[in-house]
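Sequence only, no structure available. Ideas?
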Amino acid sequence: MLKKTLAITAVLATTWLAGPLAAQTTDFPNKPVRIVVPFPPGGATDITARVVAEKLSTKWGQPVVIDNKAGAGGNVGSDLVAKSAPDGHNIVLGVTGSHAINISLYKKMPYHPLNDFEPLTQATIYPNAIVVNPQVPANSLPELIALLKKEPGKFSYGSDGNGTASHLGMEVLKAKANVQLTHIPYKGSTPMITDLLGGTLMVGVTGLPAVQQHLKAGKLKMIAITTLQRAPGTPDYKTVAEQGFANFNAAPWAGFFAPKGTPKPVVDKLAQDLADALKQPDVVQKMNELGSTVVGNKPDEFRQFVTRQIEMWAEGVKISGAMVD
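Reply:
I predicted one. Tokens follow.
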């Protein structure tokens, strides 16, 4: 009789414990979900978020809203989510800067890129593109370097912001090529591209997805991409590595994070649904056309990746000498 009573008690206890957890999964999402993009509209991160949001909205039957919160190299939007209610309804599409570089770049960070978040899944990895206004008489990296050496101090380049992957990668390349090129940090890719198209800026470095349409239209010229291999969907774009700088690799990425403390069932559901959305054939095709490669890994795999990235970019910050108070 005692054994039977204990067995019944165990079943009831298990049911009671599982009940709230199961509800957390089955009830989620029970209201609109916000994906914070910590950069202005129009950039590579924003494009990725909007493609995924459309798929999730259809799957969940709930609005998935994109909220662009730019500032401090991605810190403003990321911090907003870090301090949001940990219920899964506020997530951020973090990037190389916000979740790998900034912890070494800023003397004071409002959050820790891993301790204050639940990594969900890596969305994409993509090249930064070194592009020029058509007025620049260079069509390859060796030609651009020759031009910069011939006219030192004449040209400037724009990046997505101080300490971003576009900035640090270009500073490392400048050092390797021994050229002078003044850095102009922008608040995201959109204003920089506007200046590039208008001719007030001659050289720019930003995510390939953000400039792809302008390259195809002939409004900008490709010089090189920063991944080790050529990008899927754009096999004609040569890498920095194959143009005289062996093993050069400065590839940005984007990935989804929820606030620390989000229940595991919700984390698991978010991770799975995000990965499923990313891996849909039309999304993969869209990303490839833009120059991005879809990843869609598991939370533990993504956490390990971010850990390695933090270590790698700390070295990049050291080489560049960049620092933000």
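Residues 224 and 238 are 5 Å apart (CA to CA).
Hope that gets you unstuck.
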